[in-house]
Every structure is written in structure tokens, then in C-alpha cells.
Amino acid sequence: MSSLPSAPTKPPLWRDIRVLRWAFQLLVLALVIAFVYWLYGNYQTNVARSSIPTDLRFLDNPANFTMPGNDLDQSQPVRDAFVQGFYNTLRVSIVGILLTTVLGTLVGIARLSKNFMVRTFATAYVELIRNIPLLLLLTFMNLAVILQTFPRIENAWLPLNLFVISNRGIAIPWFTGSGGILLAVLASALVLTWIVVKIRGRVSDINGKPARGLTWGLPTFIVVMVAGWIVLGYDWVLPFVDDRATSGGLRLDPSFFALLVTLVVYTSSHVAEIVRGSIQAVVKGQSEAADALALSGGQKMRLVILPQAFRIAMPALGNQFLNLIKNSSLGATISYFELTQIAQITVGNGSPAVPAFTLTLLVYLMISLVTSVIVNIVNRRLALVER
Amino acid sequence: MIWMKRNLFRSVGDSLLTVVFGSVAVYVLWGVLQFVFVTGRWDIIQVNLKLLLVGRFPEELLWLVSGSIMALAFWVSAAATSSQSTKEARPGFGRRIWEAFQRFGLLAATGLLLIAVSGDRASLVMGAMILGSIILGQLVGFARRTLSPLNALPGWIWHPLLAVAPIVLVALTLSQASLDLWGGFLINFYIAIISIVLSFPFGILLALGRKSTLPIVRLISTTYIELIRGAPLFVLLLLAGVALEFFVPSSMAPGQIARAVTVFTLFTAAYVAEIVRGGLQSIPAGQTEAGKALGLNTTKITTLVTLPQALRNVIPAQIGQFISLFKDTTLAGVALNVLDLLNVGTAITAQDDFLGQGLIYETLAFVALLFWVGSYVMSRESQRIEKKLGVGQR
Hints:
Chain A is mainly alpha-helical.
């Protein structure tokens, strides 16, 4: 008698994969919830015993501290201090990201230079900086360079009479008048340049002559900027020493300067490695094709290699930018009044620690999310459209 | 001459670059040499060497630290040689010496420098004994490969056997000297090693959770990883410094180093998870399909097929993560007042004998040297392993 396979019966409950999957997930969920609940219960018990507030009402209390270089009144609420700290974090991060991109790209290209001297120099820079803790570099910049090596204000260094360098900070030439309007001029100059370059590209597509975007674009940019500058009555102001203080120009706090320089130097060494790796990852045929078209070294870099390299580098670069923003929290160790420092001070002044630091963490999380959204948009624009 | 022409003076612009960078290089090198041999006042390092290396670790128990270092050196040396395959063509003796010099010359030079700075007989003896235990490890590894009773021993007995001495010694050290007495470079290493070891299983679980097809598990893992990756380590350390005791029963109030280890472990786990996830994604789907064809269930496919390959492929990235953790341990110094190398380095300039003499350059240079040598040697090793594994070349 041949045994026919019987009609498939439902497996018992404890062997049914769908039941098992959900049972396992519910188990994990229950464990996580139990753990979080345990932490929360401990927190409630401990906080109730020491009668510490757990809400965000501390934000309305007076700040009771001042920040040199920022206009914050002692009686203003903690909330305003946090806003000011947020603003300072953004300031150092944005300037830092811009400078890092430029320096990191230059060093990354220099690492692949055919010139032995340039190559060695770039390699030494990257290998030295990358392997030293950021906090050590920051401490060095603050304690050794600024506090010990920069001169007192009476004998400040005045390189080319353009800058004033002392242990009270760095002053750089700046302009008179409204920065916002100048930014608008800059934006319109950039838009106009972009339009001109686009038109040149179209013309080139039609008549087949070289586009020469740079020879047209750069003068356009300069003309618009200079015109705006003169018409709106802007002028340069050079900084100078005036009775134990700097006048004119833009004064950068020593802590801002130290943090900015350290972040840029440190992050650049990582960015340089990413840029180098991405340039090397561009298919070799591209470089050979550029050679076959008799492009010069600069043209080859600018028109063929770098655009493709940046496409490869973008995700990793975005990570480095996020790192720079998060690392700006180390400003708290040298009294730069950014978010973390504000949180630390208000906690020291009696604000409840857990809500204050949680708020700080949420703000950083928000900055990170916004940055990664921007990076993703850029990434999508750059990404190869494949069939 | 041809080399110079090709590498230094291709064109006018090139020559100009060479001259500019060359003069800057000469200037910098000259400055550094001046500082190291002429103007630098290194007595502050000499006087405080013990403080910089081990902090306030009790003098009479230092032999435990030296013993642990020797046992660890022996272990690493023996484990590395005994796992070398005998089938591989081995280069000649001279070539192997040269390779060892390239890999560990810097480390040896730093050791010699430390001995020279300390200038006492005990450290010389200790250096010799560490060298001895490395050679002993090589011999034991060699015996394991060639002698008959030893090479018959299965790996799962052999490797734990090697690890017995270092584990016993480290445990003994921990039980004899309370962690609060540990400091200096020792504590940087300790925090980094313990945190990476603890974060490793946690990170693997998170990576598997994030790759899982179970929606709730995936959601929990992803949330954890992204929350941690969006937070600055320094703020987490500050938070742990003032608030960790609120989250555990009051009987479990942690010490400063326990707080540091907790934060570093939780933080590193998220990054380890992303590394392992990358490794899992690099395994071709054919591997999973082959496992299914053999009738393995999901657990077996993961633990026997995909995960081992993924973990092997991510060794270089893991070392990279360890290096950044090692450098980040300096943050514990500021955030939690742990007396780590950097903290000691800045604090000793305020000693009575050295106050106000502007010796911060000397101490920070010394601290930087130790961190630099450690990170640089590890990153070179990671590049070597990467080449050996051939990741990205298949």
C-alpha cells in the first residue's frame, strides 16, 4: 500500500512560522519596554526623593549669567541663552563646513600630486592630524597657541596691517553697513553668474565653439559684486589696536577662533582622505579619455575627474560634516558659548540636568537630521541617472 | 637626476611649488628639531612619567601592570604566529625581520624612548622582559605549528589556553587596585578595550535587528542606532556624569570610569552595528540562497554562513572604529574628570615646580606622541589586513 501524502494540515501553533515571528517580536518588544520602564521607574523614584523638577519650566527662569561677546542680559530667561547657544553652534558649524570642504579638497588633490614635495607635505599633514585626538588638538590650540604664544594686545602681531592677532582674539578686515544686504548682492551675483554660464553652455551647444564658462562667469561675478559694493556705499574697515582693545574690522573671539581652526584642520584631514579615495575611484578610462582629448591637467581635474569624484564622495562627506557639527560640542571645553556650554552652565546654575541635556541632545538630533536631508538632496541631484 | 626632474621640476609652476613647500618643510623641521633637542625642557616629562603612564596607580602593585603587559604581548605574539598557515609560502628570514621592523619599529622606538626618558634600571629590565615574552610567544607559536603533540590540539583548546595568563593577570590587577586609582595612558587603553569588547555583541545584535524582516525588531534597532548616531559623544558623557545615577537603583551608583565605559559601550555599539550591517550587505545573495538550498533555517544561515564572512570582511573597519574610540577616550577626561593621559598632561604644568613656566608645549607634544604612535601603528595594521583579506578586490 503506497502511502500518499496526506493533504497539508496546518502545523501546530508552536511550529507555525507566522505565529513564531510575531511571538518573537512581541517578546523583544516586551523586554525593551520592561527595560525602559525600569529605567523610567528608577528615574521617577530618584528624582522624587531629591525633589528635582523633571519638566522644561526651567527655561523660563532667569539665566543668571552673561556671555562675553553675546548680548544676553542676566535677567533674560534660560530659553534665550539656549537660542544664543544654538546660533553660536550654527555659526561655527557653517563656517567650519565651508572652510573644511575647500581645505580638505585641496589637500586631497595634493596627496595625488606628481610633485614629490607637495605630495609628501599633504601626506604628512593627513597622517599627523588624523591620528591625534581632536580634544588634544583643541587643547593645544587654546592653551599653547592662543594663551601662551599669541602676544598681549599691547604688542599684537599686525601681519600686513590687515589683521590684529593677540590673545584677546583675531580681528580681520570687514565692511561697513548691513551684512544682510551684502549677502543679497552676493546671492544675485551668483544667480547672474549661473545664468551667464548656462547661456554660454547653450551657445556652445548650438555653434560648437568652446563655452569658456570661467572667462565669462568670473568677470560677471566680479562686476556685479563691485557694482553692488560701490552703489550701496560699502567700504572696508581695517582693524587696529586702540587703547588695549581692537577697533574696526571684525573681531573673532579667541575661543571661536580656536574651535574653528581646530575643527577645520581636524576634519580636513578626514575629508582629504575621502577626496583622495574618490578621485582614485573614478574609472581610469575617464582620465585617459581626458588625456586623449588633450585637456590640460587643470581642465582634466576640473571638468572630468572632480565632478565624478564628488558624486562618489558625497555620502562620506556628509558624514564628516555631521561629525564636525557634533564635534563643535567640544567648544564647551574652551568656553565657546555654544549649545553644550550653555547646557553645562545652566545645569551648574541649578537647572535640572536630565531635561536640560535631553533638550540639547534633541537640538543636535534636529540639526543632524536637517543636515542629512540636505546631503541627501544634493546626493540625489548628483547621482547618476541610470536606465 | 631623472627622478628629481620628474618629481620636483617638471615645469616652472612645479618648480615654484617645490621651492615654496620645500622651504616651509625645512623651516618646520628645523623648528621641531630645535624644540626637541635645544629649547624643549623635558624634565617635566621625566619627573611625571609614572603619572602620565599609569596615573596614581599604587607603586607596590606596578608589577601587576608590567606582568599583564608581558602576558598580553606573549598572547598576541603566540596567537598571531600559531594561526599562520603552513601551506603559505613564507618569505626568507631576512625579509621577515625587515617586515617586522616596518610594522613594529615605531612601537619599539617609542618603547626605547620611554625607557630612555625614565632613565632607571627597572624600566630597562621591563622593556627587556616584554621583548623576551614576545620572542617566547614566537617560539611557542612556532612549536604549535611544527611539533606533533601541539599541532594536534584543536584550536578551541589552544587559543583559550594561551589567553589564560593575561586574563588571570588583568583580573588580579583589577581586584588588587580599585579602578579609581587607575589613570594616565593605562586608563585610555582600558576604557577603549573594555568598551569595544562589550559593544561588539550588542552591535552585532543591532545590525542583525536592522537587517531583519521582522518590522518591530527592525524599528527598535533602527531607532536606537539613528538616535545615538545623531548625538554628540561629549554631551552623552556630560549627561552620564550628572544623571546616570538617576536611572539605576541608588545601590548601583556607578563610579566615574564605569560611567565612561557605559557611555562608550552604548555609543560604539551603534557604530559597530552600522559597520557589521555594511559587512552583511557585502555578502552576495547567493550565499543565503545556497544555505537555503542546503535546508538550513534562518538562524543557521546567519550564524554559520553570512555572519562569519561579514565579520571577517569588516575587521579593518572595526580597527578604524577602535582607533577613533581610543582617541575619544580623552573626552572622558574632561567630561567625567577621569585622570587620563591628556588630563594629566595639562594638569602637571600647574605643579609647584613647573607652574607658569610655559611647559604646555612639552607635555602636549608628549601626549600627542603616545596617541599618535598608537593610532598610527593600528591603522597601518588595519591597512595590512585589508590588503590580505582582499576586500573590494573580488
